């Protein structure tokens, strides 16, 4: 079990963040959307632990509720991208031929663009707030998983157990799901875990630029964007969601690192 | 009647951008209920021929007849039906099994794919395990939890699941030590005596005495000599067969 040493604290922290995100509405001490201009821009005190924003909304409650949008959307996004990219890539590796050539050239095109630039362009074309931003991010991140899965499939493609499965009467689909995916899952999961931090950052980044979650939604990127002009006078408004992004990105990145050590001890 | 016939099989692989001929107009057949031994030095194309016969590799030219029908171009469902009657066993027993699946799961895979119920699968798996000389609790083990010989027995069990007519055994004993080799060969022989047809590939001519009715000797992608096992092991005509025989006798001398 030595391999798992060091994984636990990060898994615990990540678990807590995810729990926080899922149960956010019950955990927020105040209504994150209740405005009271008479309470605007209060610095942190015993009532508003992280102060209030310019509409008098409780920043702590907004950060907590914001975790739901940011973390949950990022997780869903990550799952969708990983599953879609891996299945496509694994199929390419198994089938080869024209499907493989077309998909790989397509992924070359996507991979040739700088990620964030492409995401910004795609999100503004797609529109539609957070869902559009998520679509844009799926569009840029699936090729990474497709390439990885394809490469992994190529390493096991000529294993006799796949040929034995074929001779047992298994279809391509049965071979893919019963034999291939389980044997390539490790490195893909590690990549996904390492990617979560990036996705959280990118999703928040798009919202910050006004291409994701729209005001008044309590989303970390959008909240930072709102606090931008007050960074000198009311720094807590931008610092609170900024720290939330920093901490969750750091936790998920370190968890990814530890997972990599577990799956790939070299 | 011939169960499997290969006619004028031609195959080249690309090496450094140039095609290299690996099989050169190979014609060979195996009679129903008999065992054909296929011998030759490493790299002479035995595995390639076996893989072409079982349609795991495409030939560049030639014809494959199995059980009276042309299977050279079969795909999809047609090919799946061929595998009901034609099975292959590989050289490396461990990599013949998905490392993440229990042996029982893998052995019953052909049954499951043919719609056999879970209960019947379990029963038949136990029966198959006994048939190849393994305890039924081997179904609950992972491939890395059994020895190479046991794993190869499990592979034979899986190959037998659908009662095939033809077994292609590609150096199934090379990765095993000598006593285990003999046991596995004896197991194959007992299957042949019960009516199984077999192609037994090896580079050890001595092994064929125990198992094969006839022998085809390959050299550099060609069949250079074919005949009954007795003839070839006692009066080899080709230099290839003589060399293989000498090598086999040499090894036997070491084993005492
Ligand atoms: N997929 C492949 N791509 C390129 N060359 C190949 C491929 N498979 C086999 N070869 C070449 O074809 C030749 C015959 O290989 P094959 O595996 O059929 O020999 P073999 O008689 O089975 O040898 P061994 O006794 O070592 O198993 C070898 O020179 C090998 O390098
Ligand atoms: Mg071989």
Automatic annotation (TrEMBL), chain A:
Stored InterPro entries: BP-dependent_transpt_permease, MetI-like, MetI-like_sf
| Alphabetical GO biological process terms | transmembrane transport
Look up keyword Transmembrane and say if it applies: yes
- What is the superkingdom listed in this entry's lineage? Bacteria
Q: Which GO terms describe its cellular component?
A: plasma membrane
Task: Give the ABC transmembrane type-1 domain ranges.
Answer: 71-256
Task: Give the primary localization class.
Answer: membrane
Bilayer topology: Multi-pass membrane protein
Subcellular location per the Swiss-Prot or TrEMBL entry: Cell membrane
Similarity comment: Belongs to the binding-protein-dependent transport system permease family.
Q: What is this protein called?
A: Peptide/nickel transport system permease protein
Q: What is the lineage of its organism?
A: Bacteria, Bacillati, Bacillota, Negativicutes, Selenomonadales
Automatic annotation (TrEMBL), chain B:
Top-rank taxon, per record: Bacteria
The record's listing under InterPro entries reads:
AAA+_ATPase, ABC_transp_ATP-bind, ABC_transporter-like_ATP-bd, ABC_transporter-like_CS, P-loop_NTPase
Q: Which organism is it from?
A: Schwartzia succinivorans DSM 10502
- Return the CDD domains for the record: ABC_NikE_OppD_transporters
Q: Which keywords annotate this record?
A: ATP-binding, Nucleotide-binding, Transport
**Organism taxonomic ancestry:** Bacteria, Bacillati, Bacillota, Negativicutes, Selenomonadales
Alphabetical list of PROSITE patterns matching this protein:
ABC_TRANSPORTER_1, ABC_TRANSPORTER_2
What is the protein's given name?
Peptide/nickel transport system ATP-binding protein
Q: Cite a single GO MF annotation.
A: ATP binding
Q: Does the keyword field hold Kinase? A: no
Per UniProt, residues of the ABC transporter domain are: 4-245
GO biological process entries: transmembrane transport
Q: Which family does it belong to?
A: Belongs to the ABC transporter superfamily.
């Amino acid at each position: 079990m030595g391999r798992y040493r060091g994984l636990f604290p990060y898994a615990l922290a990540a678990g807590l963040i995810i729990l926080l995100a899922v149960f956010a509405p019950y955990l927020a001490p105040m209504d994150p959307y209740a405005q009271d201009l008479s309470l605007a821009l209060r610095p942190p005190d015993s009532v508003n632990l992280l102060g209030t924003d310019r509409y008098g909304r409780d920043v702590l409650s907004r950060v907590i509720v914001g975790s739901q949008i940011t973390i949950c959307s990022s997780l869903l996004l990550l799952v969708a991208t990983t599953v879609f990219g891996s299945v496509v890539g694994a199929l390419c590796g198994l089938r080869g031929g024209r499907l493989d050539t077309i998909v790989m050239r397509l992924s070359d095109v996507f991979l040739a663009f700088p990620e964030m630039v492409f995401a910004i362009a795609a999100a503004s074309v797609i529109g539609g707030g957070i869902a559009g931003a998520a679509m844009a991010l799926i569009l840029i991140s699936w090729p990474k998983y497709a390439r990885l899965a394809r490469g992994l499939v190529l390493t096991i493609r000529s294993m006799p157990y796949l040929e034995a499965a074929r001779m047992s009467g298994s279809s391509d689909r049965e071979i893919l799901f019963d034999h291939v995916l389980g044997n390539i899952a490790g490195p893909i999961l590690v990549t996904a875990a390492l990617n979560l931090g990036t996705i959280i950052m990118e999703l928040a980044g798009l919202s910050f630029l006004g291409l994701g979650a729209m005001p008044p939604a309590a989303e970390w990127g959008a909240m930072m964007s709102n606090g931008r002009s007050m960074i000198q006078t009311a720094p807590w408004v931008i610092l609170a969601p900024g720290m939330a992004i920093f901490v969750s990105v750091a936790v998920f990145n370190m968890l990814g690192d530890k997972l990599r050590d577990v799956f790939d001890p070299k | 009647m011939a169960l499997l016939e290969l006619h004028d099989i031609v195959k080249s692989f690309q090496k450094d951008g140039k095609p290299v001929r690996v099989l050169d107009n190979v014609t060979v057949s195996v009679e129903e209920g008999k065992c054909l031994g296929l011998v030759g030095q490493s790299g002479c194309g035995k595995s390639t021929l076996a893989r072409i016969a079982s349609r795991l590799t495409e030939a560049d030219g030639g014809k494959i007849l199995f059980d009276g029908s042309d299977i050279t171009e079969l795909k999809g469902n047609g090919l799946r039906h061929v595998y009901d009657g034609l099975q292959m066993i590989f050289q490396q027993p461990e990599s013949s099994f998905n490392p993440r699946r229990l042996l029982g799961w893998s052995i019953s895979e052909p049954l499951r794919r043919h719609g056999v119920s879970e209960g019947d699968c379990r029963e038949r798996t136990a029966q198959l395990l006994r048939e190849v000389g393994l305890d039924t609790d081997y179904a609950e083990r992972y491939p890395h939890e059994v020895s190479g010989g046991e794993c190869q027995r499990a592979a034979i069990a899986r190959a037998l699941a659908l009662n095939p007519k033809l077994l292609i055994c590609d150096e199934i004993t090379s990765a095993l030590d000598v006593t285990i080799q003999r046991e596995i060969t004896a197991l194959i022989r007992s299957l042949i005596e019960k009516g199984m047809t077999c192609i037994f590939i090896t580079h050890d001519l001595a092994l064929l005495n125990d198992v094969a009715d006839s022998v085809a000797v390959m050299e550099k992608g060609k069949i250079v000599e074919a005949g009954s096992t007795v003839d070839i092991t006692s009066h080899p005509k080709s230099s290839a067969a003589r060399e293989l025989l000498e090598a086999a006798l040499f090894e036997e001398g070491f084993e005492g």
